[in-house]
Description:
Radius of gyration: 23 Å
Order of helices and strands: EEHHEEEEEEH
Low-confidence stretches: none
Structural class: alpha+beta
Largest sheet: 5 strands, antiparallel
Shape: elongated
Number of helices: 3
Number of strands: 8
Strand order of the largest sheet: 1-2-3-4-5
Helix content: 25-40%
Amino acid sequence: MPYExxxxxxxxxxxxxxxxxxxxxxxxRGFVWVMGLGFxxxxxxxxxxxxxxxxxxxxPFALGAMGALWFFIEKSYKDGEIxxxxxxxxxxxxxxxxxxxxxxxxxxxxxxxxxxxxHKKCGPVPNYVTLRGNGREVEIGAFLSEAERPKLYExxxxxxxxxxxxx
Length: 167
């Protein structure tokens, strides 16, 4: 799963800490294979045109297609550099979202007043999970799959109940 609960290793440490990130369907090694395979498949028809003037007409389009493939896969990697960190102490909780271009968004609230909600169908994605508190409602894990969000919802509810019962 593309999220992980961090272990609690001290009394002054947070009661719960969660890190979430988007799933990578194409790792870097796969990127190398896709580019190599694309180059090889594009080279096969161009080999038949070696020594002809037609090769010089088709070569810019072939190189442009490879460049576009490279550009858009790299853009996908850059857009997927999202990290959400939820840290829960007994008296406060913080959700920090590190965006793909270095932007950071932060939300703070008292965990006693925070509620976790799951919107089955009315959110931008199915099983949309939000945290409501401190006069705001913020999304968490919207980039997770439809099957992962209900599990996250249950784990968040349990974590908040544990923190609320400690006090």
